């Protein structure tokens, strides 16, 4: 299973959830599988998906899922320390670890060699760190959300992606509809 | 240790509904950071790099909380991509309260290197910049913050050495 296959299994879990999605192929694949107002697609700035997700989780009560990659977590490794030391029970960081930089042609990342992001997350002090195989991702994410204690999930999968169109939404539209959805959710609550 | 000027800065942030602040340590900003950390009006989350901090500020803003970053001017070299492709691209209002190292009176030579690039970088990025050289200029901060959230742009406040040395 590659990341697209994993995302396909996650669709029912992600529906109506606040989802922060990593730049490049992950956002394009999610956009083609499940576009919704509560998805925030990153169009630039590699590495900041988990940071944006954490800031959002601090600011709102709803659960936030950040779908990040091994390459982008490696580019902003300090984020795991910040997440650990400012733990949010409504924040789940899902690292889809295909051991490669998928959007640029599947060059191997250090996560495919000697570096375990699961162990790095634990060493940084993150709680509820779970490593799972691709086929378990939906179950693990569902359980982590149900526990309501937050978590870091490292989902190991194969490299590779499918050919899907780029996200053609304007960034201001992405932000606007996301914020409108959040305030609607708030007035309902 | 903090000065009355530090208190006025943090009160002004709170008065303008800023509920999330991130920072990296800085000798000049130390009092502001300390007060932001203690303030019941805002959450202060230290970051490891300023681009990470700008990511958190963006998330907080999406969640309906106004945010700000406390940083040194040297960090402008770190955040150019985040400013262009996140803050400006998505039109996130972001006040940057910047300690402006490397101006006259600076004891560390290396700080001068980034001081030379500070205003050209901000100009190149089309970021409005306001230089504070005297503590009385804190009076302008409320208007600057209001301007920032009105136009949904990053704005920079450059507080230089004379501002901090005269602050009390
Ligand atoms: Mg990857």
Structure annotation, total helices of chain A: 8
The CATH class assignment of chain B is: Alpha Beta
- The SSE order of chain A reads HEHEHEHHEEEHEHEH
CATH topology of chain B: Rossmann fold
Structural class of chain A: alpha/beta
Total beta-strand segments of chain B: 6
What would your notes on this structure say?
The complex is a heterodimer of chains A (189) and B (168). Chain A has helices at 3-14, 25-33, 49-59, 70-75, 78-85, 117-123, 137-147, 171-188, and strands spanning 18-21, 39-41, 64-69, 91-97, 100-101, 107-108, 129-133, 151-156. By secondary structure, chain A is of the alpha/beta class. Chain A has one domain: Thiamin diphosphate (ThDP)-binding fold, Pyr/PP domains (Rossmann fold, 3-Layer(aba) Sandwich), CATH 3.40.50.970. The longest helix of chain A is centred in the last third of the chain and has 18 residues, at 171-188. The model of chain A has no long low-confidence stretch (mean pLDDT 96). Chain B has 168 residues and is of the alpha/beta class. Chain B has helices spanning 4-15, 30-38, 50-62, 76-88, 109-124, 141-151, 161-166; strands at residues 18-23, 43-46, 66-72, 94-100, 129-132, 154-160. A 6-stranded parallel sheet of chain B has the order 2-1-3-4-6-5, sandwiched between helices. Classes of the chains: A alpha/beta (189), B alpha/beta (168). At the A-B interface, helix 3, helix 5 and helix 8 of A face strand 2, helix 3 and helix 4 of B. Residues 69-71, 98, 100-102, 109 of chain A line the site of magnesium ion.
What order do the helices and strands come in, and which of them pair?
The complex is a heterodimer of chains A (189) and B (168).
Chain A: H1 3-14, E1 18-21, H2 25-33, E2 39-41, H3 49-59, E3 64-69, H4 70-75, H5 78-85, E4 91-97, E5 100-101, E6 107-108, H6 117-123, E7 129-133, H7 137-147, E8 151-156, H8 171-188
Parallel strand pairs in A: 1-2, 1-3, 3-4, 4-8, 7-8
Antiparallel strand pairs in A: 5-6
Chain B: H1 4-15, E1 18-23, H2 30-38, E2 43-46, H3 50-62, E3 66-72, H4 76-88, E4 94-100, H5 109-124, E5 129-132, H6 141-151, E6 154-160, H7 161-166
Parallel strand pairs in B: 1-2, 1-3, 3-4, 4-6, 5-6
Helix pairs in contact in B: 1-2, 3-4
Bound molecules: magnesium ion (MG).
Residues 69-71, 98, 100-102, 109 of chain A line the site of magnesium ion.
């Amino acid at each position: 299973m590659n990341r697209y296959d994993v995302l396909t299994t996650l669709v029912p879990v992600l529906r109506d959830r606040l989802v922060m999605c990593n730049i490049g192929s992950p956002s394009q694949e999610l956009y083609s599988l499940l576009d919704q107002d509560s998805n925030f697609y990153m169009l630039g700035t590699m590495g900041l998906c988990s940071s944006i997700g954490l800031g959002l989780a601090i600011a709102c009560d709803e659960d936030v899922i950040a779908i990040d990659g091994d390459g982008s977590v490696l580019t902003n490794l300090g984020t795991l320390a910040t997440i650990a030391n400012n733990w949010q029970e409504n924040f789940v960081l899902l690292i889809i670890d295909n051991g490669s930089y998928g959007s640029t042609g599947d060059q191997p990342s250090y996560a495919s060699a000697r570096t375990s992001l699961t162990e790095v997350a634990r060493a940084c002090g993150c709680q509820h760190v779970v490593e799972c195989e691709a086929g378990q991702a939906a179950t693990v994410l569902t359980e982590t959300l149900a526990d309501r204690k937050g978590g870091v999930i490292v989902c190991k999968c194969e490299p590779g992606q499918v050919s899907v169109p780029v996200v053609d939404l304007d960034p201001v539209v992405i932000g606007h509809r996301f914020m409108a959805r959040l305030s609607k959710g708030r007035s309902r609550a | 240790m903090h000065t009355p000027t530090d208190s006025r800065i943090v009160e002004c942030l709170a008065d303008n509904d800023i509920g999330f602040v991130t920072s990296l340590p800085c000798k000049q900003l130390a009092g502001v950071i300390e007060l932001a950390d203690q303030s019941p009006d805002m959450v202060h989350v230290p970051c490891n790099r300023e681009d990470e901090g700008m990511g958190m500020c963006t998330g907080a803003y999406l969640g309906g909380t106004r945010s700000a970053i406390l940083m040194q001017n040297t960090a402008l070299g770190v955040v150019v991509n985040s400013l262009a492709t996140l803050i400006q691209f998505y039109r996130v209002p972001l006040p940057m309260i910047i300690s402006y190292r490397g101006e006259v009176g600076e004891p560390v030579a290396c700080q001068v290197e980034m001081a030379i690039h500070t205003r050209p970088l901000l100009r190149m990025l089309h970021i409005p910049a306001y230089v504070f050289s005297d503590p009385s200029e804190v009076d302008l901060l409320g208007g600057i913050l209001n301007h920032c959230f009105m136009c949904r742009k990053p704005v920079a406040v450059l507080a230089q050495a004379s501002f901090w040395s005269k602050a009390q």
